[in-house]
Amino acid sequence: MSTSAVSASGLYRNFGDLVAVDNVSLDIEQGTIFGFVGPNGSGKSTTIRMLCGLLTPSAGTATVLGHSLPKEAEHLRRRVGYMTQAFSLYRDLSVEENLDFVGQIYSMPRNKRKDRRDHWMGRLDLERYRHHLAGRLSGGQRQWLALAACLLHRPEVLILDEPTSQVDPKTRRDFWRILFELADDGVTILVSTHFMDEAERCHRLGILDHGRLVTEGRPQALMQDLPVDVFRVSGPGLRDIEALLLQNTAVRSVVQIGDALRVLTDQGTDPSTIATLADKGTHVERVDANLEDVFVVATADEVTA
Amino acid sequence: MIRSLARIWAIMRKELRQLARDRLTFGMVVGIPALQLLMFGYAINMDVRDLSAGVVDHARTSISRQIVADIDHSQVVNIIAQYSSVAQLERAIGSDLIDVGIVVPGDLEVRLADRSRPAIQLLLDDSDPVIGNSANALTAYSVGPDDAAPVIQSMGLYNPERKSAINIVPGLIGVILTLTMVLFTAVAVVRERERGNLEMLITTPVQSWELMVGKVIPYIGIGLIQTTLVLALGMWLFDMPIRGSLLDVYLTALAFIGASLTLGLVISTAAENQFQAMQMTIFILLPSILLSGFMFPFAGMPRLAQWIAELLPMTHFVRLIRGIVVRGSPLADGIHELYALLAFSAVMLTIAALRFKKSLD
Ligand SMILES: Nc1ncnc2c1ncn2[C@@H]1O[C@H](COP(=O)(O)OP(=O)(O)OP(=O)(O)O)[C@@H](O)[C@H]1O
Ligand SMILES: [Mg+2]
Fold first, then answer.
1. Which of A46, A149, A172, A271 has the CA that lies 20 to 30 A from A141?
2. From its phi and psi, is residue A23 left (phi > 0), alpha (psi between -120 and 50) or beta?
3. Do A84 and B6 touch (CB under 8 A)?
4. Is B24 among the domain residues?
């Protein structure tokens, strides 16, 4: 029943000596949202570009809607929408002119073009800026415009490279509401992000590190199955406690969050080990792993390996 | 096909809109031709009067004295000395005693009767273009009311190609078109890549050739506007006549615009940024100015330079346009030059289309 709209197998890409994407395989089910997270330079954009037919894989295969890339990329132009990481519409054209241009490029008949343009301008709150030059819009408004432009031709697959990087939290929620509506309509979405709250919303999530897909799965499952224990340590002298904790080989990572430390340890570590490390007056509490913990563990392994 | 045309149309309109909003480029469309024309035009056409002159009169007849007196009265030159030999005259010019030498040959009457060649020679230090061109004004002098044959022939001692507006302006169209057409197209494409627009365009159904054609067509119009501007200014400011047909002039310009635009496209596929595009344009522009016959006579150049020149569209354009504007020859006379321009465009377009791929690799 489940059909994969996007799939990649053994995808590999190097730029000279630099391996940007290393043996990435994934399957994205039709009508679901797949999230890509990973540190800067981990290969998210490069993978996305290969899935858009913009870059030729050095090895491996990619298939989108049954067409193999990059050979059959032209067949997919009308069925895939791609929102680039950097704003790629024309800054010296107005919102309306940009959308009209994109509509014309997709050979939409005049009426349809105007309908869809006005629909998305209304839906994405761009109506007020209709005649503003794209270059004068705020970062967030520009992202809305870019989204509108890649939705105009009703793509079946939507590929978004960090669409919300300049968007405030409230607007990001609106953004995601739209993504879910699209997914409900059967649109398959691949989205990269640096925000953990967004990552958590995805149906499935892939974590890239140094070009490798180090973790992949449902966000809930990834958090539950994370092979670490998480402790919240609070009390006086956090700085000293941190130094002590880091000497323990069982401790994977320590990070301060407000007036407490969040400590990741190897699974099965006795909480008393943590407690005894610290002075009296320190409060140790076991907490659930969150997605940031998943991210830290997945990307840290890679560095030490 | 209809879809292709619609996409090309969309790209053209977008390009024109951007152009209209880009004050710098827009200013260059009009500014470059006007500025260049004024610079080149006035540098070679400054009307300096009272140049000092020396005379060698081998004829010593009443007619010869009359002509010399007429020249003196022209106020272009001021005769300050008489010499007995051409050698003395040349020495005087060389040591800057006089600017212009007038040589009246012994057989003046015979020569005046023979309309096919001028009777009197001017020797001048026309390494200084101001002198050269002012003295050239004398060559307009004629004897008799309806006598069209030139009486005076000017012989530059150092710069035998006598420049005048009629020689400069047609060639100048070539210089201006090379600069603006090559640069504009190259930059227009490179800018899309630099600003990331290309990454978006590649993922749309637009084909590379549609993109190229759509981007180039507006510049054809601009090239024709510039041609008109230079011709009009040349006629208005420098009284440049157009002896051939205006249609031929525009057909020639069109072929040259095509060659320049396609060359710009090739540059755009090689240049990584706007600065590189500009450097490459200048790399083409310099030989176009120096080797094409625009500045220096083609015949006097070394063989290697001539070979290089044959590869430049400017060389063919200069020959063709001078033929039409200066000599009034029909386009058919220089048809092989036109073919050369068309062939150049076809080759460049092929190279550009082969190099321009819908990918970021
Ligand atoms: N065209 C290119 N030429 C050379 N190296 C490149 C090119 N594109 C990407 N890289 C390199 O490949 C690696 C992966 O880059 P990529 O843009 O895919 O990372 P990313 O995960 O999208 O990062 P970010 O979160 O910062 O957007 C980086 O080291 C980058 O420098
Ligand atoms: Mg990226």
1. A46
2. left
3. no
4. no
* C-alpha A37 – ligand 1 centre gap (Å): 14
Evaluate whether B194 touches B274 at the Cβ level (below 8 Å). Answer: yes
Sort out which chain A residues have CB atoms less than 8 A from B21's CB and list them: 92
Burial class (CB in 10 A: 0-12, 13-18, 19+), A29: middle
With vertex at residue B217, the alpha carbon angle to CA B215 and CA B222, rounded to the nearest 5 degrees, is 110
Question: How many angstroms separate the alpha carbon of residue A15 from the centre of ligand 1?
Answer: 9
For the CA atoms of A183, A187, A188, A190, what is the dihedral angle to 10 degrees? -80
| Average pLDDT of the residues in B5-20 | 92
Q: Which is the closest atom of ligand 1 to the Cα of A55?
A: 1
pLDDT tens digits, B300-342: 778 888 898 899 999 999 989 888 887 778 888 889 899 999 9
Q: Give A278's pLDDT tier (boundaries 50, 70, 90).
A: low
**Which one-letter amino acid corresponds to residue A251?**
V
> How does DSSP assign chain A, residue by residue?
---EEEEEEEEEEEETTEEEEEEEEEEEETT-EEEEE-STTSSHHHHHHHHTTSS--SEEEEEETTEEETTTHHHHTTTEEEE-SS--S-TTSBHHHHHHHHHHHTT--HHHHHHHHHHHHHHTT-GGGTTSBGGGS-HHHHHHHHHHHHHTT--SEEEEESTTTT--HHHHHHHHHHHHHHHHTT-EEEEE-S-HHHHHHSSEEEEEETTEEEEEE-HHHHHHT-SEEEEEEESS-HHHHHHHHHHSTTEEEEEEETTEEEEEEETT--HHHHHHHSPTT-EEEEE---HHHHHHHHHHHHHH-
Q: Position of tokens 């015979």?
A: B110
Neighbours of A119 (CB within 10 A): 13
* Chain B CB within 8 Å of residue A107 CB: yes
Assess whether B142 and B182 both reside in one domain: no
Please indicate, yes or no, whether residues A185 and A94 belong to a single structural domain of this protein: yes
* pLDDT exceeds cutoff 50 at B148: no
Range of the domain at A234: 227-288
Question: CB of A78 within 8 Å of any CB in chain B?
Answer: yes
Residue A127 and residue A232 in one domain:
no
Range of the domain at B97: 51-157
How far is Cα A159 from Cα A26, in angstroms, rounded to an integer?
14
Report the residue count for chain B.
361
Final residue of a structural domain among B157, B173, B201: B157
Range with the poorest average pLDDT among A4-13, A113-122, A278-287: A278-287
B170 and B242 fall within a common domain: yes
Does residue A273 share a domain with residue A163?
no
Chain B residues with a Cβ under 8 Å from any Cβ in chain A: 3, 6-7, 9-11, 13-14, 17-18, 21-22, 195-197, 199-206, 358-361
Please indicate, yes or no, whether residues A78 and A189 belong to a single structural domain of this protein: yes
Return the H-helix or E-strand segment holding B315: helix B313-325
